[in-house]
Write a structure and sequence with these properties.
The protein is of the alpha/beta class. The chain has one domain: D-Amino Acid Oxidase, Chain A, domain 2, CATH 3.30.9.10. It contains seven helices and 15 strands. The strands form two sheets. Strands 3, 4, 5, 8, 9, 10, 11, 12 and 13 form a nine-stranded mixed sheet that branches. Strands 6-2-1-7-15-14 form a six-stranded mixed sheet. Helix 1 packs parallel to helix 3, helix 1 crosses helix 7 and helix 2 packs across helix 7. The longest helix has 18 residues. The protein is globular and about 60 Å long. Bound molecules: flavin-adenine dinucleotide.
Length: 319
């Protein structure tokens, strides 16, 4: 791929990881984005390695590859990646455990480890990213590898193809929720999320309870705080903070992890996950240049980022 010019639309975790992967292989990469990673939904992510509200026949392969890459990164504290153990709570007998195929060492939770009302659970050790450290690290890795960044709203693929300053051999669309507009795909939809960050009372384990009848509930301890969530409002375009939602999240998370009760609130955020019935990762025909799509990761964009970036690099190499 040495010498190939690739323009990537999107500077969130998906676009940046693809940029890092392609640049590593010698590609000349330009990222075009109108929001930086810190301004995008990627900065709102909890960011626990766990598949949520996303699907694709290759999901387990991408989970496996991402887990492998994040595990390597966890050896370097500067990346902001840590391996932490925790619990996935199950309240229904039909809970989907396909993800466990990607996680060595996972085990059945004992009844004593489960919260009241839970039927079962899985304990596992997986990556947790301190996003305010990870995204700058990823950006710096791209910059060191020679990736060029342009702040621009892209109106169409053909506009990029015709730009003599870019002259791309390939365009990668990693534009999250707005990728559908660029590719005439109306199956992309928002899944609104909201989180609140509190001071860490000393917890190190994550817990996710997305079948809680009162609402999706998760607690993700990072290096300097704890992310408490959340909601998953399909079809809502509201990026504002709802105080009632925040109160309900704080109540549910304190019920799940009593040590969180009364902890000072350090920050809050809301964002729109890029939902799609299935992740789109494929070559797209019908444009002036070859196009590769990579979007629709729902609540798993961080989790799947390295696996999907490897798959995109494979497609670009085969063009
Ligand atoms: C509350 C919450 C918690 C979450 N927790 C987790 C978690 O624990 N684990 C996990 O894996 N995931 C989690 N997610 C999901 C994760 O945040 C997303 O899946 C991921 O950030 C999607 O990344 P992306 O790069 O595709 O999109 P985005 O981060 O939205 O980036 C899109 C980029 O495309 C650019 N763009 C779009 N259209 C154009 C255009 N026309 N021209 C120029 N630029 C354009 C934008 O400027 C931006 O740079 C969570 C999300 C939320 C909201």
């Amino acid at each position: 791929m040495s010498g190939t010019r690739v323009a990537i639309v999107g500077g969130g975790v998906i676009g940046l990881t693809i940029a890092a992967e392609l640049a590593r292989a010698g590609t000349s990469v330009t990222v075009l984005a109108d929001r930086t990673a810190e301004e995008s939904v990627s900065a709102v992510a909890a960011a626990l390695w766990f598949p949520y509200r996303s699907g694709h026949p290759s999901l387990v392969t991408w989970l496996e590859r991402s887990l492998h890459r994040f595990t390597e990164l966890a050896a370097d504290p500067d990346t902001g990646v840590d391996l932490r153990s925790g619990l996935v709570v199950e309240r229904r007998p039909d809970a989907d455990r396909s993800w466990t195929a990607a996680v060595p060492g996972h085990r059945e939770a004992t009844p004593e480890e489960l919260p009241p009302g839970a039927l079962a659970g899985v304990r596992a050790t997986v990556p947790v990213l301190t996003v305010p450290a990870y995204l700058p690290w990823l950006l710096a890795r791209c910059e060191r590898a020679g990736v060029r960044f342009l702040t621009r709203t892209v109106g169409s693929i053909d506009e990029l193809a015709a730009d003599p300053a870019l002259a791309p051999d390939v365009v990668v669309v990693a534009a999250g929720l707005r990728a559908g507009t660029l590719l005439g795909d109306d199956s992309v939809f928002p899944i609104r999320g909201q989180v609140v960050r509190v001071a860490n009372p000393g917890i190190t384990e994550w817990i996710t309870d997305d079948q809680d009848p009162a609402g999706v509930t998760y607690v993700v301890p990072r290096r300097h705080d704890v992310v408490c969530g959340g909601v998953a409002e399909v079809g809502s375009w509201d990026e504002g903070i709802d105080p009632d939602t925040e109160r309900a999240v704080l109540a549910r998370t304190a019920a799940l992890v009593p040590a969180l009760a009364g902890q000072p609130v350090l920050g809050r955020a809301a964002g729109l996950r890029p939902g799609r019935p299935s992740i789109r990762l494929e070559q797209v025909e019908g444009h002036a240049v070859p196009v590769v799509a990579c979007y629709g990761h729902g609540g798993s964009g961080v989790t799947l980022s390295w696996g999907c970036a490897e798959a995109v690099a494979g497609l670009v190499a085969d063009l």
